[in-house]
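Q: How do we represent a protein-ligand complex in a form that can be generated token by token?
A: Start from the inputs.
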Amino acid sequence: MSAGTPRVDACIEAVSMRFPSLTSTTYFQEVHQYITPLARQMEREVADLLEAKQVICAWSPDANIESTWASSCGELWSFIDGDPKENRVSFCHHCGKRVELKGGA
Ligand SMILES: [Zn+2]
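Then emit the structure tokens for the protein with zinc ion bound:
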């Protein structure tokens, strides 16, 4: 078994245990039949992880400095006039993630 792919390895081993007398051709057909649903499940899991990774950068008004917003990536942003929405802020200047405003006017 190769390291790092325990689910695929377990699937292949389960097929070979279940069908010990298979020829190599039918063995690969059987493995393919069992690997396909596993591969599809893994693909969905990867897509979910990638989607979850694209988190937002939350901006909230700084408690001490007027017209200043604190980002969840650790930066402060001040606006001469208006808030981030009025200044059409869509993405964080520091981390590049989509900005979501928390609290404030
Ligand atoms: Zn940020």
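The longest strand covers residues 57-61. Residues 57, 71, 73, 92, 94-95, 97 surround zinc ion (CB under 6 Å).
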